[in-house]
Design goal:
By secondary structure, the protein is of the alpha/beta class. The chain has two domains: about 150 residues, no CATH class; about 200 residues, no CATH class. It is about 40% helix and about 15% strand. Strands 3-7-4-8-2-1-6-5 form an eight-stranded mixed sheet. A two-stranded parallel ribbon has the order 9-10. The longest helix is centred in the C-terminal third of the chain and has 17 residues. The relative contact order is 0.09. InterPro entries: DGQHR-contain_dom, DNA_S_mod_DndB. It comes from Sulfuricella denitrificans (strain DSM 22764 / NBRC 105220 / skB26). This is DNA sulfur modification protein DndB. It holds the Pfam family DndB.
Length: about 350
């Protein structure tokens, strides 16, 4: 029970990994900030058992919980307990012998090995919406075997954690309006239908795809001047579809790729328009074009067919879409690529865009 004689009790399941007993318990979220400690002291990394807390991540996770109280999902926390714990099984034998009540002394130190940002976000979300505190989150409890073991646990837990590609996240994210727009365009826009890589954010040389879903998302948000998670109306979806289809009319290689009349790897090797930097730049150009010329913007787009998109056109693309002959998707390169397209279309550069041009000429 510990010195206080009191304990936290949780319904739990007992398991075994690598010869060590661990427990999975369901914990009410309201007690998470009270009993789970994250060591935030300013100590050297070699004396800590987890990474420093990145406070910039906390509001985003907290907002996710607050904005989606009926559909959010949080993965389990992992924690180490530095005290003797008690486990009372529901039965002496059989499957129920590994199910029971886990009791942890209240004076025990329960240190989070994985999930410190989720813990901090839960605390912040409960302050905004106390009803979240009634929900449960699963917790994996391990017995603390010292700093070295805790550090190894952190390394092992994170070593094989691979974030999904941005395209796959876009494909599966049904809360983000930008992702919804990208999926819509990939399925219904003539420019992108059938030649969009839906899962990966890079395209292999053997792929028959020309665009990535994440590239379409970035470019289309730029086209509609939409920020992260900003709502997109049905009318705006159709405007984006109309714009990209009009662009495709004047870049014949996009049509040839859709018709399988050209190998897409050859296009990527030889032309700037087959890369995300050009797609994003065309989105930026489109935003200005639609705003300045809402009636005859399609006629202006006809001038796209006069652009020499070949990568061998070093004079045009070096320092813009390319750096030392290699395609660059850096934000400055996207803007400089957009500047060149604007010049070809006869659009006036904004003061900040003109200033960027001066830096290129130095």
């Amino acid at each position: 029970m510990g010195d206080t004689g009191y304990s936290h009790s949780f319904p739990a399941i007992r398991g075994l990994q690598a010869g060590r007993v661990f427990y999975i318990a369901m914990c009410p979220m309201k007690i998470i900030p009270k009993i789970f400690i994250f060591d935030e002291e300013e100590v050297p990394p070699e004396l800590r058992a987890q990474r420093a807390l990145n406070r910039a991540r906390i509001p985003e996770i907290a907002s996710y919980l607050i904005d989606n109280p009926d559909s959010y999902i949080l993965s389990a926390l992992t924690a180490s307990v530095d005290a003797s714990i008690q486990f009372k099984p529901y039965a002496e034998s059989g499957p129920a012998s590994n199910m029971g009540v886990l009791s942890i002394p209240m004076d025990a130190t329960i240190l989070i090995n994985d999930g410190q940002h989720r813990r901090a976000a839960i605390e912040e979300a409960i302050r905004e919406n106390p009803s979240i505190g009634q929900d449960n989150i699963p917790v994996l409890f391990f017995i603390d075997n010292g700093l070295v073991r805790s550090q190894q646990m952190f390394a092992d837990l994170n070593k094989y954690a691979v974030r999904p590609s941005y395209s796959l996240s876009t494909l599966y994210d049904h809360r983000d309006p930008g992702s919804d727009l990208a999926r819509y365009l990939a399925n219904y826009c003539i420019a992108f239908k059938g030649i969009t890589e839906m899962e990966k954010s890079t395209i292999s040389n053997r792929s028959s795809k020309l665009f990535t879903l994440s590239g379409i998302k970035h470019a289309s948000r730029a086209l509609l001047r939409k920020g992260n998670r900003e709502k997109i109306s049905e009318q705006e979806k159709h405007v984006a579809q109309e714009y990209w289809d009009a662009v495709a009319e004047h870049i014949p290689d996009w049509t040839r790729a859709r018709e399988r009349a050209v190998v897409t790897s050859d296009l990527r090797q030889n032309f700037v328009h087959a890369h995300g930097v050009a797609l994003h730049a065309l989105g930026i150009v489109g935003a200005d074009l639609l705003a300045s010329d809402p009636k005859s913007w399609k006629k202006t787009l006809q001038k796209l067919s006069k652009i020499d998109w070949s990568r061998s056109n070093i004079q045009a693309w070096e320092g813009r879409a390319m750096v030392h002959g290699r395609i660059s998707k850096a934000s400055t390169n996207v803007l400089l690529t957009a500047n060149l397209i604007k010049k070809h279309l006869g659009l006036k550069l904004k003061p900040e865009e003109a200033e960027l041009e001066k830096g290129l000429s130095k």
